[in-house]
Write a structure and sequence with these properties.
Number of helices: 2
Shape: elongated
Oligomer: single chain
CATH class: Alpha Beta
Number of strands: 4
CATH topology: Double Stranded RNA Binding Domain
Structural class: alpha+beta
Strand order of the largest sheet: 1-2-3-4
Strand content: 25-35%
Order of helices and strands: EHEEEH
Radius of gyration: 19 Å
C-alpha cells in the first residue's frame, strides 16, 4: 500500500486490503499485489498491480471523487481482468485425446 501526495484513512486501507486479498480466488498463483493511492485536485485515483508466477502483471486503474469508490471500481475491473486471464489459460490447454483407430 502506497499513498502519493495524500493521506488515506485506516478504514479505506483496510477495505482495500480485504478486497485485494479476495482477488486470490481468481488466480491462485498470484504472488503479490500493490495498491497505489494518489490524490489530485478534484479526483482520487487508485492503481492495483497483481503479479503472478508465469504471467505478466495485471494492472487496473480506478478514479472517483472518494477513495472508497475508486477502490471498489478498481477491484471490479481487476477482478474481471483476472477472470478473463484465467479463462483464457483454461481454454488454451490441449483438448483431451480421443480414441483413435490406427491403421484401418
Amino acid at each position: 500500500m502506497t499513498a502519493r501526495h495524500c493521506d488515506v484513512s485506516e478504514d479505506v486501507l483496510e477495505r482495500a486490503r480485504e478486497q485485494v486479498e479476495s482477488l486470490s480466488k481468481f488466480n491462485p498463483r498470484a504472488t503479490s499485489a500493490e495498491v497505489v493511492f494518489e490524490e489530485e485536485k478534484v479526483s482520487r485515483k487508485v492503481e492495483v498491480i497483481v503479479r503472478a508466477d508465469g504471467s505478466p502483471p495485471v494492472v487496473a486503474h480506478g478514479e472517483a471523487h472518494e477513495f472508497r469508490a475508486a477502490v471498489d471500481q478498481v477491484v471490479d475491473r481487476i477482478g474481471r481482468m483476472l477472470r478473463e486471464q484465467r479463462k483464457q489459460e483454461r481454454e488454451h490447454k490441449a483438448p483431451p485425446l480421443q480414441d483413435r483407430v490406427v491403421g484401418d
